[in-house]
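Chapter review: from sequence to fold.
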Amino acid sequence: MTAPAVLVIEQEKDPKFWNTWAQQTLKNALSLQTLNQNKAKNLIFFLGDGMGVPTVTAARILKGQLSGQSGEETQLEMDKFPFVSLAKTYNTNAQVADSAGTATAFLCGVKANEGTVGVSAAAVRSQCNTTKGNEVTSILKWAKDAGKSVGLVTTTRVNHATPSASYAHSVDRDWLSDSAMPAEAVQDGCKDIARQLFENIPDINVIMGGGRKYMFPKNQVDVEYPDTAKYSGTRKDGRNLVGEWIEKMENKNGHYVWNKKQLLSLNPNNVDYLLGLFEPEDMTYDLERNPETDPSLTEMVEVAIKILKKNPNGFYLLVEGGRIDHGHHEGKAKQALYEAVEMDRAISRAGLMTSIHDTLTIVTADHSHVFNFGGYTHRGNTIFGLAPAVSDVDQKPFTAILYGNGPGYKLVNGGRENVSAIDYQENNYQAQAAVPLSMETHGGEDVAVFAKGPMAHLLHGVHEQNYIPHVMAYASCIENKPTHTHTHMSSVMCM
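The token string follows.
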């Protein structure tokens, strides 16, 4: 068997190519010594759920390969951000974090227990009576109180862990509607997260994602899937939260949409409030998205910014690429990486619509996964392809992408499955895993934080995850949080 030809790009054989590139990078780095100490009028926070460093690297390669390159030399939009730091993701009671406790950290500025949103570590998961007095507020609320327009856009349910920490105070991330709560918790006065979305912070300007079924009365059929019972309404209290929102916004330029056509037919100049719920549960994976009926993350972000930027005081926008995480949990690396590439497109679109002079943009992850790729693959090897040599133990091929645990663990005749006998590049292929689990787990390592715009240089080195919203508040001179005027940096004025 002859060895496959190894790709070497011709210009890379010349040392001058590398030296010139390095010198240009050095020149760019020296220009960063003049720090951007402007006031951040706008704040944009991109959260790739589960987007650990291996996912960033693999998504970069995929992005390049989708455009016909070998991939490794490609730049993601976040790669172009001038400042990068690391965030420690542990929860107050967990070495390996979950998305609720981490969301409380990077949105509310306070580390918390796993499974809880918008409450401090004094609150105990699932114990309703530990909620009161332990509520913490988010950067979205701080921005709203400062007169900015605010929005949240996600590919998950709008009441999922990450977005819910923006507005909810819940000792259990799974209390998505009242039907998911113990009777005792309801009796004790705790509210489900869907209800809190509409009641806690009045007049959030933009809300987009999935999650319709949590907003409608139990058994009310879904507008898009009337014949699918599992997508019907879930609310035991009989409330129609969407109907209530529509009625409240009747004279406030408020619009409710549930499909792409309705969304893109809006004139953002005539919209001050937007509620877009595009699926009963999470939105579909981008690889499976119907481009005729379902908006992409990039399309949602574009509409959101057009609406929010009309405010002369600026805006705050949370954008979650939430299904990166779901792809990994299911062991479906292809789904996860395509979700990450789509989020990168959304980052690019946001960059074109804003300026680094007055907009602080941060891209990070809440946690990582036990996902990786290796095996001495050659340059340009498809990211979903095989390692160049078979295992020297069981003499079977293996894919470059592997998981430490998850549903991809399979035994065939007492041994590891031979991947050459199956379609390992299929969209829903579950990559092989070392330990069998029905769902793959999060990883515990630090995650990258990419930043550009005013005060982006404050994200440097290694920090606790809860540091992030304090930087955002400081950069934008938000009241009740540390501001430029409280420091020796007299060159920056909060007006």
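Two observations follow directly from the output. The first strand starts at residue 42 and ends at 48. Confidence is low (pLDDT under 50) at residues 483-492.
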